[in-house]
Amino acid sequence: MGLSETLANYFDVHKHGSSVGTEIIAGITTFLTMSYIVVVNPAIMTGIPDAKPGVIISGFGPGQVQSMLAVVTILAAVIATLVMAFYANRPFAQAPGLGLNAFFAFTVIGALGVSWQTALAAVFVEGLIFIALTAVGAREAIIKVFPQPVKMAVGTGIGLFLTIIGLQAMGIVVNDPATLLTLGDLASNPVAIVSVVGLFLTFALYAAGIPGSIIIGIAATSIIGWALTTFGVVSPEAGLVAGSSAATYDITPLAGAFISGFGGIEAFSFALIVFTFFFVDFFDTAGTLVGVGQAADFLDEDGNLPDIDKPLMADAIGTTAGAMLGTSTVTTYIESATGVEEGGRTGLTALVVAGLFLASLALIPLATAVPLYASHIALVVIGVVMLRNVVDIEWNNLSHTIPAGMTILIMPFTYSIAYGIAAGIVSYPLVKVASGEYDEISAGQWALAVAFFVYFVVRTSGMLQAQV
Fold it and tell me: Entry's Pfam families (predicted)?
């Protein structure tokens, strides 16, 4: 029996209507779209004395710390994604999450003045709580009480979220003080010009049904940027070519540092930090699993992801291991949708992603060889494709329209999957009551709505800052 047949049998590839080749292409696609985290996570988490909050280690410069964090980011992604592959057998990839790493550096360390070691301790505790809740089925039970319109809206909301992230990285959409967002200077920005060419090339390949179309589009866009820079058409400062970074493999200053973080902090403040990490990560992961599961046609007739406890456990173990190594919360990535759209249906896709992350340990620049604008073409393509999930919503029923619409709109506008889900969950019982449909609201749905109300009070009232 050859390797291909062994892999197919172990992961039940054919049973899921896939093939080993398709799973490999899907894994490569997912890795390319999320490999930026190896650079972005260390950049966000690394502190610069008197300039930027984050991880600052005595005796090491910011560049050295950033290299350590790059190695830790890869290790955390490998551990979590391997658990996803072999235990959950799902095509979902994991790594330290965006948003949570910013909360870790700028809010917990910066605004609250908490040490980075204590922040890691909070992430570690969060991970242990997740493991316990998942083991007894509590996380799955909570997700099952998600209102039906919210479940059906998550995929479309994530699609819009992916699209805006991609368009910003490509320079097509930029910040504007008057309107928040506006069209970038497309004709004068080399990154935007190459991105637009690559985007429409990828759209054309995808529409033509060419296998690996997203990979081809990303590669072609990267080559165009490299050629324009190499042959002097544009200057290197234009940013068409990705940079590289040297690896520092000694992570001993980070690994295990969370242990010292349990001392010297007031208990209530520590609990609030854990609470915030917990809520954001819980519903980011839940939303991602449901949304990507919808795109993969994994959901049952009630909109639930069968055996969701297994990918949730992979997330919990990844978060705990990541904290022990020295990075912020690990979560399931919405970029997994790119691999799913390429046909990935089993843990073999996740295994390929983990393998590529592991390979990037030996050659860290491998993960940054593809420029950010090129890899994010995939986010726009898949984001647009995921909009088709909107047809599953009962738009002629206002008690579904309002929570679904809030879920879809709040996600991209607040840059948060969790906030979008929260808006839908809070609005659902309110509109049901207003419609006189009291009997359609479960106790669990009321409990979720109240919990999210409390979360928003804690998160936006300044209560965290007041307790430190």
Answer: Xan_ur_permease
What's the pLDDT score for residue 468? 47
Question: Which residue type does 80 have?
Answer: A
pLDDT of residue 166: 85
- Phi, psi at residue 142, to the nearest 5°? -65, -45
pLDDT of residue 366: 54
Output the six-digit token pair for 220.
């072609």
Residue-level pLDDT at 371: 81
**What pLDDT is recorded for position 229?**
93
Cβ contact 312:139 at 8 Å: yes
CB 267 within 8 A of CB 275: no
In this structure, which amino acid lies at residue 377?
I
* Contact present, 408 and 156 (Cβ < 8 Å): yes
pLDDT at 146: 79
Segments of the chain with pLDDT less than 50: 367, 468
Kind and range of the H or E element at 373?
A: helix 372-375
Task: Report pTM.
Answer: 0.73
> How distant, in Å, are the alpha carbons of 1, 181, 222, 264 from that of 219?
34, 28, 5, 50
Cβ neighbours around 246 below 10 Å, total: 11
Q: Name the helix (H) or strand (E) containing 141.
A: helix 138-144
Q: Would you tell me how many other CB atoms lie within 10 Å of the CB of residue 136? A: 10
The HSE-up count of residue 232 (CA atoms within 13 Å, CB side) is 0
Of 4, 1, 14, nearest in space to 345 by CA:
14
| Cα 55 from Cα 436, distance rounded (Å) | 52
The pLDDT value recorded for residue 246 is 55
Other Cβ atoms within 10 Å of 106 Cβ, number? 15
306/399 Cα distance (integer angstroms): 26
What's 184's DSSP letter? Answer: -
